[in-house]
Amino acid sequence: MDIETxxxxxxxxxxxxxxxxxDALCIHSSSARPRVLVxxxxxxxxxxxxxxxxxxxxxxPWHLGSLxxxxxDWSEAADMEYRSTxxxxxxxxxxxxMPSAWISEILKTSPTIKDTVESMEQAQVSRSAACFTLIxxxxxxxxxxxxxxxxxxxxxxxxxxxxxxxxxxxxxAPQELGKATTxxxxxxxxxxxxxxxxxxxxxxxxxxxxDSRTILDRMLWRREKGTSVQQSIAGFVGAAFSxxxxxxxxxxxxxxxQRLMQPDLDxxxxxxxxxxxxxxxxxxxxxxPGRKRRE
Length: 295
Ligand SMILES: [Zn+2]
Hints:
Bound molecules: zinc ion
Mean pLDDT: 83
Shape: elongated
């Protein structure tokens, strides 16, 4: 797709060295023809993605005004308005250049994440754009961490419904995320490295005869820890369900398993009854009558 010709249908494009640290500026009012100023200092392979992102601002009706864009900024902290506008334009660009249906087809025949990303590069986008688009298309259980060459974390993203906590910005990315990781793939891209933690699926064991409370008490007794630990475990259990209420026991089991993989709960996740505990908990949470599901 000739993205530049497409954008020129709706806007003027100028390429010039902008004195700000942005990929592009979009100047868009309801009265004049929109203008897109592409920063020639930041040309790179993400040129096409940046243009598609700007087209998003032009075509999404509520993106008016002058927007300074970081089209490659995919960080998860999408709480501020600026970020949500940027996230929307990125979603638009992803779908335009790498449609979900096309990615689904690629996924059917690609045994690894790396194969998938390489196939997605047919869309002539950067590896970064391909990776961050792919994570949005994947089912629960994938964590993407972008690092520098020293493996220090720059940003992380999770597929929808993933509860595992990734490493924080600035930390050194771990080799794996405890027992939850089934596979880690590494994709190099110039000054960056993309680490994919695959946490895919787990099946909950049959419901244990004892309830989770009894199992937990025994685990705590072995460890001789007090109520503060119980509270933090209760907190993690709550957090596992805040974003994505599970519809099945398997899903609940996977959510708990991922979320409880905390470095300071190492003794807990290594306890021989850990799997039994979360199995009991998963069955209890899904079976609980009258539990409200958020849709
Ligand atoms: Zn933007």
